[in-house]
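Example 3.2
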Amino acid sequence: MTLRYPLAAKQTGNRLAMTDISGELVFRRGKEVGKAVYQNRPLSKAGISERLFAFLFSGLVYPQIWEDPDVDMDAMQLGTGHRIVTIASGGCNILAYLTRSPERIDAVDLNAAHIALNRMKLEAVRHLPSQGDLFRFFGAAGTGHNSQAYDRFIAPHLDPVSRHYWERRNWRGRRRIAVFDRNFYQTGLLGLFIAMGHRTAKFFGVDPAGIMDAKSIAD
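Structure, written as tokens:
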């Protein structure tokens, strides 16, 4: 099964209309990733590496992506009437591409968590009351009522499978969507890797947060 998330976008006045024309999505943890990467015997060195990769990439990997979409859009000379096929990933670049009003974006990803994140982001753009609410949901950490905003404004418009993903509970009884009440960007494989890097650096007396104060490459 190929996980596809095709989007159709068109400019309507000063609003960007986005239409989900995807089919039903089925979550099967790791199976699609495994089918894509398994090429060697399970107990061989390469086979173990492939299965470790499939295991790590079967859950949420990228809560955000850092590639600069402006560079992409300038390189593609993206504009009205264009059609794009791209990896869904964290969805940041897809939303940026929509600002150029392409005719269609097909976003594909073997990772079902990324599909659920993209679908949730699109419904948030459509249905959260204001730009301030959208920024608070995705850009401000420690906002304790984000999950309530999800319940009121986003969940009623989500497809059943994506809604099941975000409302599934962990061993503590917390719903997955509750990470937006704390700091979503500290979750996922990327978030955990960055957090581990920060802790390791601080153990050796280095604070990576100082990079944010740099004014130039020399700094």
